Amino acid sequence: MNTHIIVVGNEKGGSGKSTTVMHVAVSLLRQGHKVAVCDLDARQGTISRYFENRLHHIEAGGVSLPMPELLTLRPEDGGSDEEGIEALLENVIADVSERVDVLIFDTPGSDTALSRVAHSFADTLITPMNDSFIDLDVLARINVHNMSIKGPSHYAELVWQQRLKRAKRGDKPSDWIVMRNRMGHTVSKNKREIDRLLVDLAKRIGFRTVPGFSERVIFRELFHKGLTLMDVAEAKGEVTLAMSHIAARQEIRELIEALKIEG
Fold first, then answer.
1. Distance (Å, rounded) from C-alpha 23 to C-alpha 251?
2. CA spacing 20 to 30 A to 99: which of 141, 145, 255, 261?
3. Which parts of the chain are beta strand (E)?
4. How many distinct structural domains can be found in the chain?
């Protein structure tokens, strides 16, 4: 089976990685794909708790919800050297590839050896970022005097290094998507500046941007139930869809279309 590997990564916490992982996973399941999720952030364990909440909701409510397979890897599992970690991930991918179409890695909001090597296996890399200069800082160093890009920042450098490793392995280039979350509905000077800088940066370091999820309370509420916005039909009245929630579902569909997963 030719398994498509998605890595959701950003070295800044609070950018919406786990929300993105679960919504992408459930959306792909509902399209008929077989999906596994690998939690590389065992210490924080946000995506693992999302799964626990989902299982509890299924058992307590007697509802049927599509469930991705969950795997958990810890920093010590592959040893201390990158060769050992690479071998570990290769074995995990080989094993999972026998039964799933898509494998999604959820990474921590910090630089770890496990996360770093996982980036080199990404067919698709999704980097969620809040629409702010604080989040832009992980991608680029900004000259604040004339609002220009001085150069790529630490996370962009990490991605570049892992792309080189991927090329040496003979794999096809990864598709890097920067997903802009919590975008405001009004046009501001900051928003225009971020637009301009991302267009410039995308040309320099090779990514494409897609609109992500707007700031909505519903995402935080769904986490505790283990639900996604694609599960409303099974929620038995626990989630009432307002117009803003319908708009959020459309944002998720547009993200899935942008991933261009075959099948």
1. 11
2. 255
3. 4-8, 35-39, 69-72, 102-106, 124-130, 140-143, 148-152, 175-181, 208-211
4. 1
CB–CB of 109/47 below 8 Å? no
Residue 57: its H or E element = helix 46-61
Rounded to an integer, what distance in angstroms lies between the CA atom of residue 27 and that of residue 14? 22
Give bridge partners of residue 127 from the DSSP assignment.
178
Give 130-152 pLDDT, tens digit per residue. Answer: 878 888 888 988 887 888 888 88
Cβ-proximal residues to 171 (8 Å cutoff; 6+ apart), any chain: 121
Q: pLDDT digit string (tens) for 145-195? A: 888 888 889 999 999 999 999 999 999 999 999 998 766 555 567 778 888
Instruction: Find the CATH number of the domain harbouring 254.
Output: 3.40.50.300
Question: Helix, strand, or coil here: 128?
Answer: strand
Show the domain range for 89: 4-259
Q: φ and ψ at 97, to 5 degrees?
A: -60, -20
Rounded Cα distance between 195 and 189, Å, is 10
Residues near 151 by beta carbon (within 8 Å), at least 6 away in sequence: 140, 141
Task: Give me 90's structure tokens.
Answer: 């290769």
DSSP state of 74: -
Provide the residue count of the chain: 263
Is the model's pTM score more than 0.70?
yes
Q: For residue 256, what are the contacts with CB-CB under 8 A and spacing of at least 6? A: 24, 27, 28, 31
